[in-house]
Specification:
Elements (H helix, E strand, L loop, with lengths): L5 H16 L5 E6 L4 E7 L4 E7 L12 H17 L6 E3 L8 H11 L5
Parallel strand pairs: 1-4
Antiparallel strand pairs: 1-2, 2-3
Helix pairs in contact: 2-3
Length: 116
């Protein structure tokens, strides 16, 4: 078996812990690249995405990979989740550390009405 990178090990550890604690609650999954940030609210039991937002979407303030863009994505994913009837989620940061753009997205989603 191939050795996993530090990022892959961190992502595996985070997702395993989330599934063990909260198998029934939808998860807010965040993916970050050098250019953009993406967020999805996923129902793992049904295997469906309930709401999503990204910095690629039209009308996002800021250019792609900024904290301002991450905050806007957080607000939009919270609004889309509320519209889909979801108010409580678990935050899945994947293998990303909880600071910078990931933290900004989480804080904006909380301000938008999501509980986690």
């Amino acid at each position: 078996m191939a050795k996993l990178s530090l990022f892959a090990r961190r992502r595996q550890r985070v997702r395993t812990a989330l599934r063990a604690r909260n198998a029934t609650t939808p998860r807010l999954s965040v993916h970050r690249t050098g250019r953009h940030i993406y967020a999805q609210v996923i129902d793992d039991r049904a295997g469906k995405t309930l709401a999503s937002a990204s910095s690629i979407d039209k009308g996002i303030e800021g250019i792609g990979a900024t904290i301002k863009a991450a905050e806007e994505v957080g607000k939009r994913v919270a609004a889309a989740a509320k519209k889909a009837g979801v108010s409580k989620v678990v935050f899945d940061r994947g293998g990303f550390l909880f600071h910078g753009r990931v933290k900004a997205l989480a804080d904006a989603a909380r301000d938008g009405g999501l509980e986690f």
